[in-house]
Amino acid sequence: MGPVGGSTETGQALKYILHKGFPGGRNSSVPEVLIIISDGKSQGSTARPAMQVKERHITVFAVGIKFPRWEELQVLASEPPERHLLFAGDADDAANGLYSTLSDPVCTATTPGCKVESHPCERRTLETVKELAGSYVCWKGSKRPNAVQASLCPFTRESLFSSQGIMQRCLQSYTWYHKHNQTLVTPSHARMVARVSQRDWTDTTVSACWGMEETPTVVAAKLSLECGVDLLFLMDSSAGVTLEGFLRFKAFLKRFLQAVVGQDSPMSVGVAQYDDSVKVPIEPGQHKDTLSLMKSIDALNFSGGRTLTGRALQYIAQHGFRSTPVFADVQDDLPRVVVLLTDSKSQDSVAEAAKYAKDQNLFLIGIGSSFMRAELTMVTGNPQQTIVYSDPQDLFNRMPELQRKICSVGNPEGCQAQSLDLAFAVDASSGVGLENFLRLRHFVRSSCLHFIINRDVTQIALVTYGSKAHTVFALDTHTSSSAVLQAIDQVPFLGASASAGSALLHIYSDVMTVQKGARPGVSKVVVLLTNGGGMQDAAAPAQQLRHNGILVFVVVVGDTERDTLLRVAGSPNYLVHISSYEDLQYYQGLIIERICEEARSPVNLCKPNPCMNQGVCILGPGSYRCECHGWEGPHCESSKHQQPLQTDPTSPWSKETAVAPGQLFGGQALVLTWSLSYGKW
To answer: Which residues form the VWFA domain (predicted)?
Structure first.
């Protein structure tokens, strides 16, 4: 197949699919999947044909290439976008690494070794039959009356909740991928099977097949929220959300909190509501038990009025959290999370208010209908912190997703137990400019929110550079997230020309060193943020960092020579090319994930060399030691001719010396060895 040429008319292509259908397609029991690979820059409108394709129950995957227009791709992709909106660096990459992503959600297609049989739903409990057909394992179950879907995936039940009671989907398909359960197929039937009170929602579920009587009740599995956060729900109570929407949010809030808040939960919960004004009827930490919390939520009343989401966010940033430390000298440094529940467009500006809230160290999560996606993303600053639902019932299906997003704040997924020394090198040259430098600075700030910052887990350093590099703060300067964020807010713009090479050399010699807080046995990563200017002198310093066990991750904004960038990054895996500064937020999740993967990699205790003054690092089993010539101390940091330094008896260093410091043997200075044991901190 060769290139066609001409303009990009994605809308016309969709109309062609609607008119011609799927050539050689089978009957309606076979799922139809459409994969669109595009840069998302169509010359014609795509909204209406995309909607018509989805109304035909065709699952659409949108794969963006090069520098895609994400807004258009989101219109094309099926819900939820996090499963149907994908990215490939270029057209060649679109086929690489996407097989598992695409085959996972469409694995319900009947395989050649399986067959479709009629198997009506005849029992009160769901029956599945496993049998071998050739080399395939087939599962049979009733997808709809008198029609059975046979596939590689087993079928199971799923309970849904509504304001009237519990509904049961007769069949739901799941697959196992990387040890995670993932919903695949929306069944064709759902039926009300029992009316229950809200109080029973947490512990009761009823199972039934389509057309059959209800089954005995069973205990439902509860969600878990075992993460330490201060949590505030900000609920829209304006006329735009309507009384029905407000009551739906209340029901969702009660259901979620009943499921996740236990007697020993380490979190505090508050609830605020807003329209023209803002009220905080339930302050975080006010209630110590679930029952009293539920009563307070029941007492919340709909108010009506204008939708002033921006004013509400600013008010919550100033007055929403009033924590009092248990001890005067101990700060409450729990992450503060605000979950915005809204279903109406704001009548005031939300961008500046959201930025102000995030500058106050608040982590924002937005929940709303699909048409609210753009505004919610503007509030959160990150699509991964936005949850949208397709219909009122779908809101209740989003509870596990909300639980994961809340707990990803204090315990970033993949990083919670891993130690890491992380340095950001930010281009502050005139080529970037003040406005774009502020965007880079904000990106660093929001990235830091994904790490637990202290001496034992993640240490962060920041370097800015123009023609010269400057250490804003070293790895061991700040020991809390709040201190790091405050320091980032004060970073000035430098101007002048750019020299990325001088910045990387500076990090090697003056940042990733033991005397500046670097920890032996801990993974080390440098993230270089640049517009691509001044990279000509960066390849050799980057190679020197890699040779000493320090990963260099290059994030480039704009159009720059790829070969030069690859020499600095060392591998395409450590190079992220972004089309504009506005799109930085969409790549944050990918960059954090890559950093966390590196944090889990094995390390060499002697790289970089922890020994100072030309000391030689010698590896032992789970430890290392420094051989010092003319120097002494665990890292050869003290001259033998100086008075020995007083040591801290609580120091973690484990010292082993053959003789006392300064002892001579045969008229020559004895080489002292210090043995240190390290693991990952």
So the answer is: 1-102, 230-406, 421-595
Q: What is the 3-state secondary structure (H, E, C) of 271-302?
A: EEEECCCEEEEECCCCCCCHHHHHHHHHCCCC
Rounded Cα–Cα distance for residues 367 and 342 (Å):
6
The structure tokens listed for 363 are 């982590």
Query: What pLDDT shows up at residue 29?
Result: 61
* pLDDT score for 190: 30
Question: What is the pLDDT, as a whole number, of residue 250?
Answer: 93
pLDDT tens by residue, 618-654? 988 878 889 998 888 888 888 876 554 443 443 333 3
Amino acid at 66: K
Tabulate helix, strand, coil % of the chain (nearest 5): 30, 25, 45
CA triple 45-50-52, angle to 5 deg: 120
DSSP 613: T
Q: 218 burial class (0-12, 13-18, 19+ CB within 10 angstroms)?
A: exposed
Among candidate residues 377, 307, 376, 310, the one with its CA nearest the CA of residue 349: 310
Largest CA distance in the chain: 98
Residue type for position 488: I
Report how far apart, in Å, the C-alpha atoms of 239 and of each of 274, 298, 310, 343, 666 are. 10, 19, 16, 10, 92
CA–CA dist 78, 435 (Å, integer): 35
**Whether residue 43 has pLDDT greater than 60:** yes
The angle that helices 47-55 and 10-20 make with each other, rounded to 10 degrees, is: 30
| Range list of β-strands (E), 361-468 | 362-369, 386-389, 420-427, 458-465
pTM for the whole structure: 0.47
pLDDT tens digits, 292-318:
888 899 999 999 999 999 999 999 999
Cβ neighbours around 391 below 10 Å, total? 9
Domains of the chain: 10-103 (3.40.50.410), 109-221 (no CATH), 230-410 (3.40.50.410), 420-599 (3.40.50.410), 616-677 (no CATH)
Q: 394 CB contacts (<8 Å, ≥6 apart)?
A: none
